[in-house]
Amino acid sequence: MLYPLARSLLFRLDPETAHTLSLQALDRAARCGLVSPGQVIHTRPRTVMGLNFANPLGIAAGLDKNATCIAGLGALGVGFIEVGTVTPRPQNGNPRPRVFRLPEVEGLINRLGFNNHGVDALVEMVKERNYDGVLGINLGKNFDTPLEQAAADYLAGLRRVAPYADYVTINISSPNTQNLRQLQGNDTLPPLLRALHDERQRLEQTRGRPLPIAIKIAPDLNESALDDIARILVEEKMDAVIATNTTLSRDDITGQPHAQEAGGLSGAPLHARSVEVVSHLARTLSGALPIIGVGGITSASRAQAMLEAGASLIQVYTGLIYRGPPLIEEILATDRP
Ligand SMILES: Cc1cc2nc3c(=O)[nH]c(=O)nc-3n(C[C@H](O)[C@H](O)[C@H](O)COP(=O)(O)O)c2cc1C
């Protein structure tokens, strides 16, 4: 009952302001004890990447880029939270406006461009973490780091967050950092992953426990590119694949206001493609690597579709903007396995 009211007020504001206000309100509610911080809901627990998840539902990267709202988001009951994308140095991202709502189709276009406070600031926040669920930290490269030196940025991030992350995600699929997606290619991906795996092995010695690495991929890849990526991830000993990031395709939103804005499209119009990618990966991988499914989960039935396509875990972002916290309750209340 409350969220539709809050939403009609929030939707009068520009999307970024509404986002900041919502996170601040959630964080204050958690700090004041209005919602209990870090109360993970135990339902359909599972072990993925060697980590124990109290339930399969998580918050996708980008919602809490600077890890300022872990307690508030944790209070929603999710089994895991992925903070970031964070880059080694702070950066402002692209000029505003850079987020656009498409309410008729429950979609969103963003071209934020990894605006974040930098990895040092993020680490200060995660040190104080008050959340019992699994915490992932999503890493990117700075916009002005040449693509040939991208590995150095990811390695710097990995070293910095290793003591605090339950798992790390390597984001090579944002459409808003020039040429980033080229890192998904057959020539570029293996050396990057090899360097990350070597470094992770070194870090695990001081950390004293495994440091799983997940790779986040784009939905705009054809079947043969997906097959290549699946093979490379297994060969290079990665721990999970996250499918998918936002899409550059506008096929399903022609004629919608803002459809021609540059950036990545998320939400309901992305769902069918994300499910298709997950089910293709599930067939190709046949259990060799777990899949974290994300894209357009705006209802319990869409969450179920993603799990049935072969995802071991699922994440939400845009669905939360349109449906609010009741979406999480609805998904977690579903009693199917
Ligand atoms: C405003 C916005 C910012 C995002 N920022 C990031 C990010 O920093 N890193 C990342 O890996 N994904 C980012 N994403 C992608 C989401 O994590 C997710 O993969 C995608 O939006 C599809 O899920 P959804 O349809 O539930 O939103 C962002 C998405 C949105 C809408």
| Heteromolecules bound | flavin mononucleotide
How many H/I helical runs?
Answer: 11
CATH homology superfamily name = Aldolase class I
* Number of domain modules: 1
Number of strands: 13
Which series of helices and strands comes N to C?
A: HHEEEHEEEHEHEHEHEEHEHEHH
User: Helical residue percent?
Assistant: 25-40%
CATH fold assignment: TIM Barrel
Structural class: alpha/beta
- Stretches with pLDDT under 50, minimum 5 residues: none
CATH class: Alpha Beta
Q: Judging by the overall fold, what is the CATH architecture? A: Alpha-Beta Barrel
Average residue-wise pLDDT = 94
Cα(first) to Cα(last) distance is 28 Å
Largest sheet: 8 strands, parallel, barrel
Q: What is the general shape?
A: globular
Architecture overview:
This protein has 337 residues and is α/β, with parallel strands linked by helices. The protein has a single domain, classed as Alpha-Beta Barrel (TIM Barrel), CATH 3.20.20. Helices cover 37% and strands 17% of the residues. It has an eight-stranded parallel β-barrel with strand order 3-4-7-8-9-10-12-13, surrounded by four helices. The chain has a three-stranded antiparallel β-sheet with strand order 5-6-11. Strand 5 and strand 6 form a beta hairpin. The structure holds flavin mononucleotide. The site of flavin mononucleotide has 26 residues, from strand 6, strand 11 and helix 10.
